[in-house]
Amino acid sequence: RLPTAIEWEKAARGPEGRRWPWGDEADPTRCAWGAGPARPPGSAPRDLSPFGCLDLAGNVAELTLAPAATTGAPAVWLKGGG
Known about the structure:
Elements: H1 5-13, E1 58-66, H2 68-71, E2 75-81
């Protein structure tokens, strides 16, 4: 199944609630930001979350499930991307 938006946020931001997977400071050298073709998974190894998840900032948007309480029924949201 797809992760919920809440699960995705936890995986990306960690227990501290970081702004970016690597910390609170933006750093475009850590991920694939901006226009251009999508990069292969794992091609930005410094885009690493506290839980070891790669590629959660920049590159492409990822599908997640919205919490049912938010929409009245499960729906798809996009997270990440650049």
